Amino acid sequence: MKKVIRFIAVVSVLFFAGTSFFAQDNKPAKKQRIQVGAERIEKYQKLLKNKKVALAANATSVIVHSDGTMIHDLDFLLQNRIEVTKIFAPEHGFRGNNEGGKIISNDVDPKTGVPILSLYGKYVKPSKEALDGIDVMIYDIQDVGARFYTYISTMHYIMEACAENNIPLVIFDRPNPNIDCIAGPIRDEKFKSFVSLDPIPVAYGMTAGELAKMINGQGWLKNGVKCNLTVIPVKNYTRKTRYVLPVPPSPNLPSERAVRFYPFLCLFEAAVVSEGRGTLQPFTALGYPDKSFGDYVFTPHDIPGMATNPKFNGKECYGLDLSEEPLYDEESIFTLKHFMYFAKKIGSAKEMVNQPLGLAQLWGNDKLIEQIDSGMTEEEIRSTWQEDTAQFIKDRKPYLIYN
Asked: What is the pTM of this model?
């Protein structure tokens, strides 16, 4: 039976309202409560005492108490008499309710009066002038473990700016919900961009704190500068911990399932296939306006805060509902089978991909279209990056924090 998604225009007001919307698929058994770096004030209070502090943060920068209540980093720091004088906001903005790709403007936090400087507009890197009067910078933004998720690019540029201006950087670390996966090719230097800034796999299996240590240690900052870096680790966390985010990291990753599937479904951003934007199932449904593409039916629409004029706006799309696919097995988090399925249905990957440069920047090289159209299996495509992945795993080992 065909299922049709119906939309609610007011969905945008739900985002970041202080509760978790994540579907608790495969919810792990209760263990010791995870404490993110921001909560562990005893580990960093001395570093910030009597200092003028800048905070790079967004709506994910929260502490969840044992009773389930949440407090934003900014409020927590101010309550503990830490002088936060500036906020730096990444893509989606400080409150996290802006669509992906939309320019973010400078602003003022209405609750505290602290000025907000955008790092997703005229500047993607803090300028020397923006850092004037700052003694120390804090970075605390939830990552999802995909190279093209731009928060880690913002972190890279913050590290670079801090190094160039002799400002210490403290990273409040957070779990990576996709830490169990390392997959995809290492980014080719030719396709370096804001969505592929560092030479790492598509899914790299590290926390932001671990990646920052690697960026520093491998000399990936401009001119090889080194950042004065301190990482405040997550407590009670290991590489096998299944972590469900308490707050959506961005408007189109509203569920645990979307976060898990994002590292491979984001490739459809460069193709003539809907990845579910403009529905309540972004990155968990795929479709094309042709009845032969599948039995699942959805119609993308404008949804304030999530999608403006999404792909195939107002047209019925037919394809795949991924809501029943497993979240925690070897293939669930990173597979090319859906990309290859739609390429075959359309005729070829070359016909399906309408933004070849965009795909190359996401994927890290320009070989994927040719590999698929030449008839390579997914296993054969995976074999092309295994040697580089093995080297990456070896190189990252000194920077890992969690067992």
From this structure: 0.89
